Amino acid sequence: MEKVVIVTGANSGIGLALCERLLSSDSQVRLCLACRNMERAEAARAALLTSHSSARIDLLHLDVGSVQSVLGAAEEVKTRYSRIDFLYLNAGIMPNPTVDIRAFFKGLFSRNVINMFATAEGLLTQQDQLNSDGLQEVFATNLFGHFLLIRELEPLLCQPGHTSRLVWTSSSNARRSAFSIEDIQHRRGKEPYSSSKYASDMLSLALNTHKNKQGLFSSVICPGLVMTNLTYGILPSFFWTLIMPIMWLIRIFTNTFTLTPYAGAEALHWLFLQKPESLDPRAKYHSLTSGLGTNYTEPRIMDLDDEMTEVFFSKLLELERAVRRNLSEKTADSEHYQQYISEIQ
Fold first, then answer.
1. pLDDT by residue (tens digit) across 171-225?
2. What letter does residue 294 receive in the DSSP assignment?
3. What is the reported pTM?
4. Orientation of helix 306-329 relative to helix 67-80, angle to 10°
5. Residues 6+ apart with CB under 8 A from 180
6. How far is CA 323 from CA 132, 135, 227, 246, 257, in A?
7. Cα separation of 197 and 320, whole Å?
8. b/e map of 127-147 (b: 16 or more CB within 10 Å)?
9. Are 75 and 84 in contact (CB under 8 A)?
10. Are 194 and 115 contacting, i.e. CB atoms less than 8 angstroms apart?
11. Full 3-state SS string of 215-273
């Protein structure tokens, strides 16, 4: 039976590696590459068809950072498919990253080097900004746009007698200390990426609480330390040239340095092969690589609070109502709208 699989951010990195692995393992997969840049999406499809000439690969224009784009893409999906088997929520951004160079070199030659690379704690900050919908850009792209997409596609995801799966690409940088329930968009902080990834961990748990009985199951993965366009954007290219030999050496002693997109997609692919009932909704499934280069998946319990998770889910629903109302009234620049969504914080 054909399996409809949608992957956001599928034109490069972990998303593209996942698509390659899915096509290699299951001939019944019908892939939909949901991407913001359609030229790159076309190139990704062409590359996949080179090694899988008979594969069914669709393209979908989707910018998860834009409410209008998400709603338009969801309507397109509902006209194409009668159901969705897997929705991989993989797209994400880390704009304007700033590295504390002194802390970086201090950590590079310390016992904390592995944890530094794995979590970037105390090392990495970003400068966020408002998007055209009046939302913080990182929050909108990494979390809220995906949440809105799920809400729009519920008729295809929650069908009687059918099981559907959500899989979030989270991060080891998803830290509770970076998130505030009083500032869910991270307007006042300097770690919007970490905050948004912790928020996705909470949202996954909330979706399981509210949607499992309707046949919708959600899981979270961590790809490990992977060299992708997002990673390369953190430091100048000559820095990576200097430290890559060190990173490959460290890889012998730690399993979190997956490094390649193929290895980083291990947990994403592993979840595709599992029955949802066997999975732990409180676990994050980590892509890991042994010192000998063997890829495997390991669950680790997330640091989540049930009460805060439910409050967060309620705030997302309230924000969704405000954004939809704003879209219908076209008042994104109004002072009243900005004040209202700020109060939702």
1. 988 999 999 999 999 999 989 999 999 999 999 999 999 999 999 999 999 999 8
2. -
3. 0.89
4. 90
5. 186, 188, 189, 195
6. 11, 9, 35, 46, 39
7. 19
8. ebeebebbbbbbbbbbbbbbb
9. no
10. no
11. CEEEEEEECCCECCHHHHCCCCHHHHHHHHHHHHHHCCCCCCCCECHHHHCHHHHHHHC
Could you give the CA distance from residue 217 to residue 227 in angstroms, rounded to a whole number? 29
Q: Which sign, positive or negative, has the C-alpha torsion 45, 154, 87, 66?
A: positive
Place of tokens 């596609």: 153
Residue range 277-335, pLDDT digits in tens: 999 999 999 999 998 889 999 999 999 999 999 999 999 999 999 999 988 776 555 65
Contacts of 220 (CB under 8 A, 6+ apart): 167, 168, 170, 200, 201, 204, 283, 284, 285, 302
- Could you give the CA distance from residue 170 to residue 191 in angstroms, rounded to a whole number? 15
Q: Do residues 191 and 126 make contact, with C-beta atoms less than 8 angstroms apart?
A: yes
- Could you tell me if 138 and 94 are in contact, meaning their C-beta atoms sit under 8 angstroms apart? yes
| Six-digit token string for 97 | 């990253």
Mean pLDDT for the chain overall: 89
Q: How far apart are CA 293 and CA 101, in angstroms?
A: 30
Helix (H) or strand (E) holding 313: helix 306-329
Residue 13 identity (one-letter amino acid) = G
Q: How many residues in total does the chain contain?
A: 345
Q: State the catalytic residues.
A: 193
Give the HSE-up count for residue 41: Cα atoms under 13 Å, Cβ half-sphere: 20
Would you place residue 46 in the very low, low, confident or very high pLDDT band (cuts 50, 70, 90)? very high
Could you tell me the two tokens for 19?
């698509």
Q: What is the Cα–Cα distance from 203 to 312, expressed in whole angstroms? A: 8
Query: CB-based contacts of 237: which residues, under 8 Å, 6+ apart?
Result: none
Q: Residue 222 pairs with which residues in a beta bridge?
A: 286
Rounded Cα gap, residues 136 and 56, in angstroms: 36
Pairing of the two strands 124-126 and 56-61: unpaired
